[in-house]
Amino acid sequence: MSTDDTDGSFGQYGGQYVPEVLMPAIEELEDAYQRYVLDNEDGFMDEFRRRLADFGGRPLPLQRADRLSERYDTEVYLKREDLLHGGAHKLNNALGQVLLAKYMGKDRIIAETGAGQHGTATAMAAAHLDIPCEIYMGETDIARQRPNVFRMKINGADVNPVTVGRGTLKEAISETMRDWATNVEDTHYVIGSVVGPHPFPAMVRDFQAVISEEAREQIQEKAGRLPDSVIACAGGGSNTMGAFANFVSDEDVDLVAVEAGGSSLTVDEEEGVAPNSASLSTGNEGVLHGARTKLLQDSDGQIMESHSVSAGLDYSGVGPELAHLVDEGRVTPVNVGDDAALEAFHRLSQDEGIIPALETSHAFGYLEENPDKVGDLTIVNVSGRGDKDLETVIEETAKRDLDIAPDMSVFEQVGAGMMGASGGHSEGAQ
Questions:
Q1: Predicted TM-score of the model (pTM)
Q2: In the chain, what are the domain boundaries?
Q3: 3-state SS record for 191-233
Q4: Thinking of the domain 62-86+209-398, which architecture would CATH place it in?
Q5: Tens digit of pLDDT per residue, the chain (430 long)?
Q6: Are 8 and 198 in contact (CB under 8 A)?
Q7: CATH fold match for the domains 10-55+90-204 and 62-86+209-398
Q8: Of 62, 32, 61, nearest to 48 (Cα)?
Q9: Which fold has domain 10-55+90-204?
Q10: Residues 176 and 136 sit within 8 Å (Cβ to Cβ)
């Protein structure tokens, strides 16, 4: 099995499918990636790792999940990327790319974001490194991720709403690409996942590989051996490839990519909608955002709108290297529906005191449904914390009859009480 990306290809996937106007910027980035990231010119990687420790808080713990281990009768360890500064794995890549932009002499940063975690990470990194930043975010995602929008703003970033299409991640990437094509000389585009034209998939993987670098060493220290499996949720695939990268050559370690099964794996071609984001499981080969990969598309090759209860998994494609590893049989693609992800969100919160991102919840949903398939020792990558998702979880939980969900009647009680108190006070004041 080969994942040789020296020419930007992973088997039949990858490449550089971009307008001619972007090729000078792509070539410049290729050169910078080789010199600074791969060859550590001017001590770039040394500075990156130093800032990732001092600003980001690495290394991050690998924690045994005591109650989940008991529940599933297997040893469950959690890689705590939710403890990275900003609350998600996204800072690993954002800090690397913003620092690289500084080394390249760029004086403006742009980025796309879905759930807002990449946007907040980029905004934090840009503030940390003193470089102006603009974030493109779909209007649908702005509405369901308000706390992260505010976090980007208070870090000094401009947030540009994207109103075309469904206003989600796919459209945000497209708009950011247009901006980059117009301002290539002074602007660097910080792509948030292992997608896009070469060298982005390889470069983002390399920045995120610190996850599996730490986890591989930590599990041997704690358990005395490698895990039987590593489980990670998969949207575009940045946390997935970060969690997998240093285990790919360990053939005895199963690598499980958990996609968003949404409400159904069926596709409504007439409406142009796939009620899921399971590109690895159900997608077909095509080109999107500068790379050939697996996509959700109709029989005419038109990109379908995707869906997930989690904004961060709501993308119609997936990273080309991940698609290749699936074709090679090295990575197993699975999917978990909205309901199971919400149940897993509540379960991890109650059982382990860790409120996971809805993205991460899909990985725990798979563990709940398939405890007999993960072996005697598994690592689950906790890609981010769920603070950003609380409004969505409250809303989506209210629509469902979930036995595990907490009783929310306290809000009704307090609301009625406050209204009564307010009325009484007003009357007395008169």
A1: 0.92
A2: 10-55+90-204, 62-86+209-398
A3: CCCCCCCCCHHHHHHHHHCHHHHHHHHHHHHHHCCCCCEEEEE
A4: 3-Layer(aba) Sandwich (3.40)
A5: 445 556 789 999 999 999 999 999 999 999 999 999 999 999 999 999 999 999 999 999 999 999 999 999 999 999 999 999 999 999 999 999 999 999 999 999 999 998 788 999 999 999 999 999 999 999 988 988 888 899 999 999 999 999 988 787 788 888 999 999 999 999 999 999 999 999 999 999 999 999 999 999 999 999 999 999 999 999 999 999 999 999 999 999 999 999 988 877 777 777 767 777 889 988 999 999 899 999 998 888 888 878 788 877 878 899 999 999 999 999 999 999 999 999 999 999 999 999 999 999 999 999 999 999 999 999 999 999 999 889 889 888 888 888 888 887 887 777 655 444 444 444 444 3
A6: yes
A7: yes
A8: 32
A9: Rossmann fold (3.40.50)
A10: yes
Q: Which amino acid is at 202?
A: A
Separation between Cα atoms, residue 146 and residue 116, nearest integer Å? 9
Q: Would you name the residues annotated as active-site residues? A: 90, 112, 383
- CA neighbor of 354 nearest in space, from 384, 399, 395: 384
